[in-house]
Amino acid sequence: MKILIIGGTRFLGYHIAKRLLADGHDLTLFNRGKTIDDLGEKVRRIHGDRYNSKAFSERLSGEKFDAVVDMIAFKTEDSQTAVETFMGNVGHFIHISTAAVYIVTQDFPCPIREEDFNRPLYSKPEANDGWWSYGFHKRECENVLREAFERHGFPVTMFRLPIVMGERDYSLRAYSYFLRILDGKPLILPDGGLNVSTHIYQDDIARTISSNLLNPSSLGQAFNLAQPEILTLRTFVLKSSEIMNKKIEIVEIPSAILEKAGLGISFSPFSMRRPFVLDIQKARRELSFSATPFDIWVGKTIRWFVEDYDGEPPENYNSREKENEIVKKYKQSVETLTARNNSG
Questions:
Q1: What is the Cα 341 distance to its own chain's centre?
Q2: Helix (H, G, I), strand (E, B) or coil at 3
Q3: Which structural domains are found in the chain, ordered by start?
Q4: pLDDT tens digits for 162-191?
Q5: What are 100-143's pLDDT values in tens digits?
Q6: Which pTM value belongs to this model?
Q7: DSSP letters of 179-225?
Q8: Contact 59, 46 (CB under 8 A)
């Protein structure tokens, strides 16, 4: 099949590209060409700016593809331009969406099902809230694509993803914990690390896309893709330390105290104040979706970061000294309070 990936050289897009090539497809990438890839000479590359609508349409006008995988549509106009450009020129348009589309809804349940997309939205926060903006605009992308399907038969499928894990993850969120385990210093888990969530391994997304390129029943549909295991952050950290053969000292500190101390919880990127669990029954039923077990993918991810990653540490690691200072003060306060209670 002749397939276009919009994006395709950094993390998830790269793994999708590798899978499609391994499955024998004729692959084209559209991106700015700023990230060098090792995908080989068989890949056709078209360079351009996705967010320049006119240039995007001009570069791809008249091109026909059996499938297009859109990795980087973040606003309404991105998806609208894609519809205008590929209408009648694509057999299957796959939109990579996000589970953040649920974050902006009121009181979403646990687990979250695809139909919960239709719950009422809460108002935009007065403060700058990156998650709200991200989730809201990705919802708008989906709405454009769904309308195009309903009105004109535009052949779209949308995949809603939680935090994606795996090798080459440039967000460095998992690496934030691996580094703290490796340095041997106390590791703070806000609120005990008892928040629950589901993640997904990059290979599972790539495999699902490749195996459903010719699935007509997926058209016009949105699907949650996630691992079946419901993890606490504490479980993730403990399993990681076990694989790394490193003993860790976990220090549980309430997030309210961390905020008051001026640290906040951004140093712990998997700390969430709401349960974030995706229901995947629809994907299992209609896409034959399956997921790599947690123990396997976390081991692969750790090995890549420890053995192959040679970049800078995540920005949040700059707070490490402050974290250690807060741990000492917190322990002292707990000891003082315990002594007072015992003496009383």
A1: 45
A2: strand
A3: 2-161 (3.40.50.720)
A4: 999 999 999 999 999 999 999 999 999 999
A5: 999 999 887 889 999 999 999 988 887 777 878 999 999 999 99
A6: 0.94
A7: HHHHT-S-EEEEGGG--EE--EEHHHHHHHHHHTTT-GGGTTEEEE-
A8: yes
